[in-house]
Each structure stands twice: as structure tokens, then as C-alpha cells.
Amino acid sequence: MGRKLYVGNFPYETGETELQDLFGRAGTVETVKVMRDMATGRARGFAFVEMPNDAEAAQAIAGLDGKEAGGRNLKVNEARLAANLSPRCSQRAVSSFTF
Predict the structure, then answer these.
(1) Residues in a beta bridge with 49
(2) Residue 66 φ/ψ region, left for φ over 0, alpha for ψ in the -120 to 50 degree band, beta for the rest
(3) Calpha distance 60→38 (Å, rounded)
(4) Contact call for residues 52 and 30 (beta carbons, < 8 A)
(5) How high is the pLDDT of residue 93?
(6) Angle at Cα 86 formed by Cα 77 and Cα 19, nearest 5°?
(7) Which residues, given as ranges, of the chain have pLDDT below 70?
(8) Please, which of 4, 9, 34, 86 could form a disulfide with 79 given CB 3.0 to 4.6 Å?
(9) Three-class DSSP category at 21
(10) Spatial CA neighbour of 9 closest among 89, 82, 64, 85
(11) Residue 95: enclosing H or E segment and its boundaries?
């Protein structure tokens, strides 16, 4: 299991601090990155959380996947690389980065 987790379906008002606190209950959190709309700065309802080891990441998944937060059920799982997505999604993901 990887250490980078995908967190989805959380309320748009949720920020990095709230996710840091929530995942901190499961273990040590290295980073939290809430994905935001580039034009408005508003959260898009998903984020990536990095934890230092597989055991803490597994504990976070087991304890938080499906947990209610702000009237919504969180989706927490191991983050997948863009190469594991459909060709259309991975092409869009790669084209959004500047090399």
C-alpha cells in the first residue's frame, strides 16, 4: 500500500487544516494538498494526504473511508498514478503540467 492517499467527496468549505486534524487521528500526516479551482480558488472536493508509512495509511483508510463529514461520506483510498487512469484523463493530467 502506498503512502499517498486520495480523499474525495468532502465539503467544499473543508481546508488543509481540517484534513490535517482529521487524518492526524489515524497517524502522522506529512502533507495535505486540497485541489482548488484555478479561477475561483474554491476547493474542488478532493485532496491528497501523505502519511509516512503504510501502517498509518492503512489505518487512515480503514477508519475514514465512508466516514461522514459535513453531511457527506468521505472516500479515502490509495492514490493512483495518472498512468492508471483512462487515456483521456491521463492525457489531460500530463498536459496541465509545465516542464
Answers:
(1) 5, 32
(2) left
(3) 29
(4) yes
(5) 52
(6) 25
(7) 1-2, 83-99
(8) 4
(9) helix
(10) 64
(11) helix 87-95
Instruction: Please tell me the CATH superfamily of domain 4-95, with its number.
Output: RRM (RNA recognition motif) domain (3.30.70.330)
Q: Could you tell me how far CA 1 lies from the centroid of its own chain?
A: 15
Where are the chain's structural domains? 4-95
**Which pLDDT value is given to residue 4?**
96
> How many Å apart are CA 99 and CA 84, to the nearest integer?
21
The C-alpha cell 491528497 sits at 48
- pLDDT confidence of residue 27: 94
E runs forming strands in 19-65:
31-36, 43-50
User: And the C-alpha cell for 2?
Assistant: 502506498
Between the CA atoms of 48, 23, 74 and 56, what dihedral angle is there, to the nearest 10 degrees? 80
Alpha-carbon gap, residue 63 to 77, rounded angstroms: 11
pLDDT at residue 81, as a whole number? 82
